[in-house]
Amino acid sequence: MNSQQLEQFYRERSYTKVFAYPLWTIYLEPKQYYLGWVFAWANRPDCYDVTLTTPEEWQELHQIIQDTKTVFASFLRPELVNVSFLGNMSRHCHCHIIPRYKEPVSFDGDLFADENFGQHYNQTNTQYRETLHPIRFEKLRSHLADAFQRLTYVS
Question: Which end of the chain is more exposed for a tag (fewer CB within 10 A), N or C?
């Protein structure tokens, strides 16, 4: 992505920002195919691919994945977590961290089911909520942000 495309990305995603680490930033995926789906975005503008990450970026990303699993376990309690690097739509290094649920999970008074548990997380194969109500989306983003904030003070 060129600098203009990156600026546009940051403007469009500002409401989805969960937590910033020194080398990566976590965003809540706007399309919540699976409740809690986040992605870690490399902060370095010229990091276009996972193979271009520095050892420091790779080490921090490893910690972020661990932290994210801890945060998910604290209130969403997924059965497992998928980690994926795609880069098909956004030509910038980012890592999807996707909670998967064997049983329906409740959040903010609503029930969310992972109808493809045990299968690929392919978005076209699931009944999903493309968007959460903006208030519910913000509650989820805020809850995740608070959990990351508490976790980093403990670490």
Answer: C
Angle, CA of 111, 141 and 95, to the nearest 5°: 100
What is the tally of structural domains in the chain?
Answer: 1
pLDDT at 146: 96
CATH number at residue 14: 3.30.428.10
- Which residue range is the domain that position 77 belongs to? 3-154
Indicate the pTM of the whole model: 0.88
Tell me how far apart the alpha carbons of residues 129 and 126 are, in angstroms, rounded to a whole number: 9
Contacts of 97 (CB under 8 A, 6+ apart): 37, 38, 39, 40, 64, 65, 68, 69, 81, 82, 83
For residues 69 and 88, what is the distance between their CA atoms, to the nearest angstrom? Answer: 24
Residue 109: what pLDDT?
86
Helix (H) or strand (E) holding 5: helix 3-13
What are the residues whose beta carbons fall under 8 Å from the beta carbon of 59, sequence distance 6 or more?
Answer: none
Kindly provide the b/e burial profile for residues 34-66, where b requires at least 16 CB atoms within 10 angstroms of the residue's own CB.
Answer: bbbbbbbbbeeeebeeeeebeeebeebbeebee
